[in-house]
Structure formats: structure tokens, C-alpha cells
Write a structure and sequence with these properties.
Layout lengths: L3 H17 L5 H10 L4 H7 L4 H9 L8 H15 L29 E2 L20 H7 L41 E7 L2 E6 L4 E4 L4 H12 L16 E4 L1 H6 L8 H6 L7 H8 L3 E2 L7 E9 L2 E8 L8 H4 L12 H14 L7 H12 L3 E5 L6 E5 L43 E4 L4 H4 L3 E7 L2 H6 L4 E2 L4 E3 L11 E6 L9 E2 L2 E2 L19 E5 H9 L8 E4 L3 E2 L3 H17 L8 H11 L4 H20 L24 H26 L5 E4 L1 E6 L30 E8 H10 L21
Parallel strand pairs: 2-5, 5-8
Antiparallel strand pairs: 1-4, 2-3, 3-4, 6-7, 7-8, 9-10, 11-21, 12-22, 12-23, 13-20, 14-19, 15-18, 15-19, 16-17, 21-22
């Protein structure tokens, strides 16, 4: 006779068996989750499983197994009660079974694996196609199997997230690029597969690299529409996994000699194979970001870019988490999601994040356009007046030490003075704590969101070559450029902010990166000199190099990166509507919400910072000292624009420091690029940031929030910790970037 426990166990097993037969279709599972605004990562965390497992349940590749199955079933049942499926539309044409089927179309060279989610079975054929072949019907009815023949599937559009805050604005799909901007090529059993954006997987019939390129150009339907009507479409990118490299006869890693050269040897069998197929390589050769192309067909480019992470295409300091690298072992589907999300929100990667940041400027402000000649009726090339279109003469004070212009002007290791060189850089400043500050228990670090991008917003820059002004010209803040002027007379102790004077000894100078007061004439960018005037001091330039044709060249670049940053933060649960304590809690949660989106966020920030840096790309050993390096040959090599952005970063930060000091009598003790450290009575930024009696931030001061230019909490340490650090390092040093988000010291940064 069975015991009561045994009977209960048998009943539970029977109920579980019933539940296993009661799951909705894979497409319905995904619909319910998206209707609730939940990510696969959140569902996986609740069910104590992996995100990839939830994705396989929603694609029909696998089915849930105990013990998660019963819980997953209950989860879907509750969602179905809240989000019932919409009623199906009545068919306006006879059912497919009543229409004689047409002969099945020939099998295309590339057959897609089932996208996620699987297309729902419908009694009525899709719009625009009143007939459905029996082969197509069988393909739809076999979830998880590779269909034998069916039309090329469209990726299923994502539904808006239910989380608060903005999301990426919808863009009409371009049928030429219906499979997305890029694909990750991997081995799936004995078949090559292309993992695309949105979970789409395509069969790849190509047996070698040359065939892979041709498949991409003819069948892949990969690429990205131009970002400006006068620009050009982005070339498709193929990311090759280690397994794909081995299958195509390529090394998983480069040899030391090949690493130094940055490319495969020209005698490698794959390079020869590519040349035999009459494909061309750029001058960079077959390297981590190889471009292979054929001659254009009319106005249509035929170029494919290969991205090879194991060769160094995605350096960890830009694309990955250096404390916990994930890209080397990231599954192909996740890698496609990571790079695909970045491509859709920023642009298709062109190389490093810095290279992509610079390319984004050109994509949004194309230098040329096609213009019709009214006399001949033929189209010819014309320049766009709002873009950087040609090379101009450079200015001696604006170029770096190794520039060919300086050959013979100075000794090889001569250290140019501020009167000889424009030195606009971010802050690297610190000071000793006062006795009163040592009595406060905490040091709180905050950093400015997207500081470089925020500084570019609304900034007027020069679009033409320099004009040399001599004979003590009058300063004009509307003219971007470089000014030789003595600002040593600017005394911050004489400046009144909000009706009170400040302690100048606890303030950095706004005119030098080290925060030291200038000692004589020096070169400054226009925003720096304009700030001296704003503080109430007269300026008397000695000479200047200015640009007379101006514009807000970086505005669309800023807006694109801003939207990408805010959309990604919203996906991580941090919206622009959050303030104060609510914002701080959301930021703390966001670090553990979605590791893949966290990498997207890092790449967006690196794109902003690196793109500005590329405006004055230096010689990195490419050619001998004082010889021209490749970057000098492009119109976007503009050190004056970089200087204007960095000057704006520093000046904007100093302006808010002054306002905060006037409101609270608190001063920073260290500043590193975009991070500031304040003594505080409590561990939170809310313990020292000034607020009005109505609970609003004091105008002009630092403000917590997610938008570029606002600040977030970087970390907290004690004053005792700082004193120990000073003692270990033998004196005061910059601790601004040594306090991490988790409140520990970031040694080695």
C-alpha cells in the first residue's frame, strides 16, 4: 500500500505532466514577455537559468524542463491573463488550402534558420501574397527545423519596452538590408551560419573567404542605410569567430611578425585565394578589420568588411570589460546582439571605437553631394558648406611635437612652452585637504556623463582654414581658433558668484590642465578666453589664428550619441525622468541588469571620447619623427576643433564648481578628466550637492541625472583612506579616478 507522501508525489508528477503539455507556442511566449516589457535576462534570473536558455525556449529550439518548466508555465499563464492575444483578423481571401498551390520556388543559395520568434501560423496568407505554397506551409509548421524552401524572412520588429524612459526611435526597414547591418559567422555542426540582429540565423553555403564575400554581396542582404541623404550606405560587416577562422583556413591568432605588421603575410594561402578570385584588398591588407571589394556596379559599392576579434579587432579597453572580459567566449548570437545594437544606435563599426567616432562625424556631415549642372544637365560633385571638405594650412602652435612643420624649428626633445604650443587638455588636478575638510568623514566621487559629447553640443567650430591676426587684435568670442594672450592677471578671489567671493586657494585655475595659475602669455582656444571675459576680466590678445567660416559641425554627432546613450540607459532601467535617490538606486541596479548592454554602453562612451581624440591623431610610430603620417591627409585632422571641445569640458566643469562653492562652501579636492572628488558629511552625492528649499538643484550647479553633461555617483571612500593613499605614494596625488563605483580603490587606473 503506497504511503501518503508517495501518492502526493504521483499526483504532483501528473500535474506537472499536464503543465508540460499546456505551454503556448514559442512565438506566443516571446509576445507575452515583450508585452510585459521584460527582457530575457530578467526572466532567466527569476527562473535561475541562463538568458540563452530562455532565448531557446522562445525560438522553439528547446523546451523547458523541470523544475523550471512548471514555474515558466505559471509565469506565462499570468501574463496571458494580463495581455490576452489580439483577436485574429477575418480572412479577406479564400484559405490557402482552397487555392491551387504554385510550384515551389527554387532553393536560394542561403537558407535562413528560424528567426526568433517563429512566424505564427495563420489561416490567411500574409499581406501582399495571396498564395502560400505547401512547402512554405511545412516550413512554418516545423519550429526549430531548417526549412527546405521559403521566402526570405523578415526580422520581427521589437515591441517598445514598458520601462520608463526613451528608447531607440523606430527607423523604416530598408529591404536591401533586411537582415541587419552585420552578422557573426560561426560553425553550426557541419554548416556555416550567420547570426544576425534580432535572433535571425542564416545558412551560409560559402566554402572559402572569397565565396563568403560574394555570398554577402549577392544573398546576405546585410548593410545599413546612410545616415545622411548625401552620405553613403554602410558596408556589411562579417565578424569571424575562431571556429569560422579555422574552417576558412585562417589562423586563430596572428604570429608576432604579423601582429607587428597588422596583417597576414601576402603569401598566405587565403590572401592568394582572395586575389585569384579577383577580389581587392585595401592598402591595410588582410588584417583585423580587412576590407574586400569588387569594382562598383554603377553607383553601388560592392565592399565587405571583416572583423576578426581574436586578431585584436575589438580591443578590451574599448569594447570589453577589462576586469571581466566576455568577448573571447561570448556566444555568436550574443556577439551579434552586442555589435548589432551598437550598429543600430550609433553606426556600423568601422574599426576601433575612435575610428568609428570619427567616421560618424563624416557620415552625419558628408563633405560632398551630387549637384545637377543647370546648363549641361549632368550631375557633378559639389561641396557641402556645413562640413569639413578639404585640407587647409596648419598652425604651428596647434600641431603636436612630431609634426613635419616643426622639423628644424626645435631640438628633438625640446619641451615647448605654453607660449609656443596650444595645450588645451582635461583637468588633472589635486590638492591637500584643509583641516576642516579632514573632519568630514567621506570623499565622494562623481563624474560627468559623456563629458566630451556634451561639450560638443552647440559648439561653434571653424570650417575653413586659419586667418592670422596680428597687432594685438580685439578678442571676438564668435571666432573659433587659437589666441596668444596673457591671463595671469585673472584672480579668482576677486570673482563674485551669487553675491559672494570664493576661496581661490581651494579652486583650480580654469586656464591650465594642472590647475596652476598662468605665469605669462600662452595659447588658448576661444572658449577659454571667452570664460576669462565671462568672469569679468579684460583680455588683450597679442596675436591669433581664427576661422572665419563657422558652424555647429558636431551637433548631429552629439545628438546621435546622446540618443544612443539615453536609449541604452533606458534599457538598463535608468530613464531621464529619474532624479535624486531614485536615480542613484536605478544606477546601482543597472550595473547588474544586462552585461551585454553594459558593453554597448561602454562602447558608446568610448566612441564619443575617441572620436574627439582622432581630430588630432598623433604619429604612433607609423613613420619616422617629422615625417607625414596618414592621418594628416584627411580633412578631419583638425587639432583646433579638438582643443575647443576639451577647453569647453574644462570651462564648463569650472563654472559649475564655482556655482557649487558659492551655494555650499564646498570645494573639490581632485579632478581627473570628467571625475570630481568632494569632501562630504555623508557617503552619497545627495549629502553635498546643493538644493533649493523646493527640493530642486540650485541652478548652474552639478545635477544628478542620466543625460550627457549631468553627473552620476562614481564611488565613495573615507578621508582616512585618502590620507593613507597620500602616505603610500609619498605625497598628494590625483585620487579622482581611484575610487570605483563599488566604493573600492581602483588600483592601477
Amino acid at each position: 500500500m503506497p504511503t501518503q507522501d508517495e501518492l502526493f508525489s504521483a499526483v504532483d508528477a501528473l500535474l506537472e505532466e499536464v503543465a508540460q503539455n499546456d505551454l503556448p507556442s514559442p512565438a506566443e511566449r516571446r509576445r507575452l514577455r515583450e508585452a510585459a516589457g521584460l527582457s530575457q535576462t530578467q526572466v532567466a534570473a527569476a527562473l535561475a537559468t541562463r538568458r540563452e536558455t530562455v532565448a531557446s525556449w522562445e525560438s522553439g529550439k528547446n523546451e523547458p524542463r523541470p523544475p523550471q518548466r512548471a514555474a515558466y508555465t505559471r509565469f506565462l499563464e499570468k501574463l496571458a491573463e494580463r495581455f490576452p492575444a489580439p483577436a485574429p483578423e477575418q480572412p479577406t481571401t479564400p484559405p490557402a488550402a482552397a487555392v491551387p498551390p504554385e510550384p515551389a520556388p527554387p532553393r536560394p543559395p542561403s537558407v535562413p534558420v528560424l528567426p526568433q520568434p517563429a512566424p505564427p501560423i495563420s489561416a490567411s496568407p500574409p499581406a501582399g501574397n495571396t498564395q502560400q505554397t505547401s512547402a512554405q506551409q511545412r516550413a512554418v509548421q516545423r519550429p526549430g527545423a531548417r526549412p527546405s524552401a521559403r521566402p526570405r524572412p523578415k526580422t520581427t520588429p521589437r515591441k517598445p519596452s514598458a520601462r520608463p524612459g526613451p528608447s531607440a526611435s523606430p527607423v523604416a526597414a530598408d529591404p536591401r538590408f533586411e537582415n541587419g547591418p552585420l552578422a557573426v559567422i560561426d560553425v553550426d555542426g557541419d554548416q556555416m551560419a550567420a547570426y544576425c540582429v534580432g535572433g535571425l540565423v542564416l545558412d551560409v553555403p560559402a566554402k572559402n573567404i572569397a565565396a563568403l564575400v560574394d555570398w554577402t554581396l549577392t544573398e546576405g542582404r546585410l548593410g545599413q542605410s546612410r545616415l545622411h541623404r548625401h552620405g553613403r550606405d554602410a558596408d556589411p560587416v562579417l565578424v569571424l569567430t575562431p571556429a569560422a577562422l579555422e574552417r576558412y583556413g585562417l589562423p586563430v591568432t596572428l604570429s608576432p611578425e604579423e601582429r607587428r605588421a597588422g596583417r597576414l603575410h601576402e603569401h598566405h594561402k587565403v590572401v592568394k585565394q582572395v586575389k585569384r578570385a579577383e577580389l581587392r584588398l585595401t592598402q591595410l591588407g588582410f588584417g583585423p578589420w580587412a576590407r574586400l571589394y569588387r569594382d562598383p556596379e554603377g553607383a553601388r559599392r560592392r565592399c565587405v568588411q571583416l572583423c576578426i576579434p581574436t586578431w585584436g579587432a575589438l580591443p578590451v579597453e574599448e569594447w570589453d570589460d577589462k576586469n571581466d572580459p566576455r568577448l573571447p567566449t561570448m556566444p555568436a548570437a550574443d556577439l551579434a546582439r552586442f555589435l548589432g545594437t551598437y550598429a543600430e544606435r550609433v553606426m556600423t563599426p568601422r574599426g576601433t571605437t575612435a575610428v568609428t567616432g570619427l567616421e560618424l562625424m563624416t557620415a552625419l556631415r558628408p563633405p560632398t553631394r551630387a549637384e545637377k549642372d543647370p546648363e549641361t544637365g549632368e550631375f557633378q560633385q559639389a561641396f557641402n558648406t556645413d562640413a569639413l571638405t578639404e585640407l587647409y594650412d596648419v598652425v604651428e602652435c596647434e600641431v603636436p611635437d612630431e609634426h613635419p612643420m616643426l622639423k628644424g624649428r626645435f631640438a628633438r626633445h625640446h619641451q615647448r612652452t605654453p607660449a609656443e604650443m596650444l595645450l588645451e587638455e582635461p583637468y588633472d588636478w589635486c590638492r591637500e585637504l584643509t583641516d576642516d575638510e579632514c573632519m568630514k568623514p567621506y570623499l565622494v566621487a562623481v563624474d560627468v556623463n559623456m563629458a566630451f559629447a556634451a561639450a560638443a553640443n552647440g559648439l561653434t567650430v571653424g570650417l575653413n582654414g586659419p586667418t592670422h591676426l596680428t597687432g594685438n587684435p580685439r578678442f571676438d568670442p564668435a571666432l573659433p581658433g587659437s589666441w596668444l594672450v596673457d591671463l595671469s592677471h585673472v584672480d579668482l578671489s576677486r570673482v563674485e558668484v551669487g553675491g559672494r567671493t570664493l576661496d581661490a586657494d581651494r579652486l583650480p585655475s580654469p586656464f591650465t590642465p594642472r590647475g596652476d595659475r598662468p605665469e605669462g602669455p600662452a595659447w588658448y582656444a576661444t572658449p577659454t578666453v571667452a570664460y576669462a571675459v565671462e568672469l569679468g576680466f579684460e583680455v588683450a590678445p597679442i596675436e591669433a589664428y581664427v576661422r572665419t567660416r563657422t558652424g555647429r559641425y558636431l551637433d548631429p554627432w552629439y545628438k546621435r550619441l546622446r540618443d544612443a546613450y539615453i536609449a541604452t540607459m533606458a534599457d538598463l532601467g535608468v530613464s531621464t525622468a529619474l532624479e535624486g535617490e531614485e536615480f542613484l538606486h536605478a544606477m546601482a541596479r543597472s550595473r547588474h541588469t544586462d552585461p551585454t548592454l553594459a558593453l554597448v554602453l561602454k562602447a558608446i562612451k568610448a566612441t564619443a571620447k575617441g572620436g574627439i581624440g582622432k581630430l588630432r591623431q598623433r604619429n604612433r610610430g607609423q613613420v619616422p619623427y617629422y615625417e607625414p603620417w596618414p592621418a594628416l591627409a584627411r580633412p578631419t585632422w583638425r587639432p583646433d576643433i579638438r582643443a575647443a571641445v576639451l577647453a569647453t569640458v574644462r570651462v564648463s566643469m569650472h563654472r559649475k564648481i564655482m556655482k557649487t562653492a558659492a551655494a555650499t562652501d564646498l570645494y573639490p579636492v581632485a579632478i581627473g578628466t570628467d571625475a570630481l572628488v568632494y569632501p562630504s558629511p555623508g557617503p552619497s552625492p545627495l549629502d553635498f550637492l546643493p538644493y533649493t528649499p523646493e527640493g530642486k538643484p540650485v541652478p548652474g550647479t552639478f545635477r544628478l541625472g542620466v543625460s550627457p553633461g549631468m553627473i552620476k555617483h562614481q564611488g565613495t571612500q573615507t578621508v582616512l583612506w585618502a590620507e593613507e593613499q597620500f602616505e603610500q605614494h609619498g605625497g598628494v596625488f590625483n585620487i579622482a579616478n581611484h575610487i570605483k563605483n563599488d566604493g573600492t580603490a581602483a588600483e592601477g587606473e
